[in-house]
Structure prediction request, 576 residues.
Amino acid sequence: MQFGVFTVGDVTQDPTTGRTVSEAERIKAMVAIAVKAEEVGLDVFAQGEHHNPPFVPSSPTTMLGFIAAQTSKIILSTSTTLITTNDPVKIAEDYAMLQHLADGRVDLMMGRGNTGPVYPWFGQDIRNGIALAVENYALLRRLWREDVVDWEGKFRTPLQGFTSTPRPLDDVPPFVWHGSIRSPEIAEQAAYYGDGFFHNNIFWPISHTKQMIDLYRRRFEHYGHGAADQAIVGLGGQVFMRKNSQDAVKEFRPYFDNAPVYGHGPSLEDFTRETPLTVGSPQQVIERTLSFREHFGDYQRQLFLMDHAGLPLKTVLEQLDILGSEVVPVLRKEFEAKRPAQVPEAPTHASLKAAAEQARELETVSPEVVGLEGTR
Amino acid sequence: MKERIIAVVTAGLTVPSSTRLLADQLAAAVRDALDGRGTPYKVEIIELRDHAHDLTNNLLTGFPTESLRKVLDTVVAADALIAVTPTFSASYNGLFKMFFDVVDDKALAGKPVLLAATGGTERHSLVLDYALRPLFAYLQANPIPTGVYAASTDWGAGATKLHARIERAANELVNTMSNDQTASVDPYTTPTPFEDLLNG
Prediction:
């Protein structure tokens, strides 16, 4: 199982000091978080993509390329890549380039983006969100898998004899996750292609998230990619930890109460009861995270949102230390002990490359096998 | 015969409230009409006041609490809806609108609805037609022709006429309901097949 962090990249005032970091500080903080994530033994760093303030990460492959140069093991991913408003040709090229630079340590999570005004800024309309996600992704897959593409669709200029460059590293396209909070069409899309499905799982009750994941698993099996329990599931979560539970609650409360998304709404107590947010001791985080498995089945990737609500970088790095030293080692052991043999790990560049080589060998070997059978 | 569920949503702010009183009388009239037809039924009364904080939180967080979700599920699954609001500043009150802002905008499509309102003076009676009716038109619900408005005077000398309107509306609601047999499709159980999405 993979463990990692995902960041939205918001610039939010620290409500305890009134200080708001600059864009420069925030961007460098995101890099520091990624480097720290590798240092404390996490497997994945994923970043959002936004084109409106107060968010800074408009250019994910620039940032991920920079992080790739400063790390050597961690998988670089997105949360999410806007499949609706980005040109699929640019996504194909940018992420293939990143794949080469990062020696294959790259995957992506596709998302639609829910900010209405962003769509027209890129010549699109949010009402076509699902249709854009479907058409653009179908093209993206072809651009990574076919050397020369002739294509015509509704949303972009037709392509004749087009080759996306560079070609994916080792001719293995990056693994793709599809992220959606509430659209059954996206769970269906992930299932159709046998791609991964990620639920951010941070603002919604378990009952809702379970409905989406169950649908994805059922349809993954329907489309013949394996049994429902072999589908590739990722989940988000958000935590704040201190050695003593009361200290965690006391320190995090002002951040919660003023957070851009849920601040000035439900109480911290109500929100932790209704959603996966866990504020407490490392042991409480371990127990809560293990409980996800009871609800959603064995899954492949757990990402934590750690740098939210205006928390200062120093605190976030302390949180990563606790996560890496006290929480994830226990989770790795417990999840691994409970995972049945037939449930796969999340695909990586190495595993996809090995699978592709095996498939090619089978293709070249099979005529001989048929021939041998004929002589018997 | 299948048991019919009648949901009554009432947005009165005081306890007791004249809005709740009107809601109860409408519910009683619908009970009488269903009894007359021998239809089994259950009436679920929902006081929005009890869910005011959860409604605010839902607007801020984007999801309902466990207890609010049960209320939303009840209203969406009901065979018919009675919606009653006090008149505030020439319209339904904020609590009433918050509830229907939180209901999924397709969830009430085709649902028979009895619209009702209370107010201090009969001069507000058209609130049913210029405020409530457009809201339920947007939600693609099926509001019955008769709406019931009760002003303060209707609880005294006007009561006979009010009762006649209540009875007429209750009968219309029950008649509309019996014609309505549409079952909605749950997209999480029965998704649109991906080939259909690919073909636009």
